[in-house]
């Protein structure tokens, strides 16, 4: 299960709805997330759909949905993936779903759930994002969960919570507490193909523990 370097020109026609995009940011908050979660991943999004306007390959594009600060709004945004790739400073990896996970994914339920979060302009959930990254305290003896434990709440979304909820709603994974899933947690789920692909950034950066954990470990 290794990383392969690939250009977006090579990757774009192979991407499908449900494929996860992992980011390694360089900003202050990104560095905090990476430090707290012991990883090089600070943010995630997911390919929402692909579109071909006509028979010309030049008009083919992928949409990504993510909860982030973009286009003047801090929350759930949909954009062209090529635009995000072109303006992003940092590492960027493509994590294709495995054949088994894709066979389980109901793309209509997946799309409808995620599109509705963008349509209603769900804001970014900073408090839950921070608490999800502090899982080391979750076993503190306080009514069965520690002070950093998040109860599932979709009134707002942080990045990996949004993607996890979309994959759960679409059936690619079973029941999980999406509000407890960090960016590196999502990359660890064993729902991906054997290889993942780096599209941008420092070639020495890797996604540790990629594709090694059961999503059910994040069950409610």
Shape: globular
Give the CATH H-level superfamily: endopeptidase domain like (from Nostoc punctiforme)
- In CATH, the topology is named endopeptidase fold (from Nostoc punctiforme)
Helix content: 25-40%
- Count of the separate structural domains: 1
- Cα(first) to Cα(last) distance is 28 Å
Describe the protein.
The protein has 220 residues and is of the alpha+beta class. The chain has a single domain (3-218), classed as Alpha-Beta Complex (endopeptidase fold (from Nostoc punctiforme)). Helices cover 30% and strands 22% of the residues. The protein has 8 helices and 7 strands. It has a 7-stranded mixed sheet. Strand 4 (60-70) and strand 5 (73-80) form a beta hairpin. Helix 5 (107-119) runs antiparallel to helix 7. The longest helix is centred in the middle third of the chain and has 13 residues, at 107-119. It is globular. The two termini are 28 Å apart.
Q: Nutshell version of this structure?
A:
The protein has helices spanning 8-11, 28-37, 81-87, 99-104, 107-119, 126-133, 159-170, 183-188, and strands spanning 3-5, 20-25, 43-52, 60-70, 73-80, 90-95, 196-200.
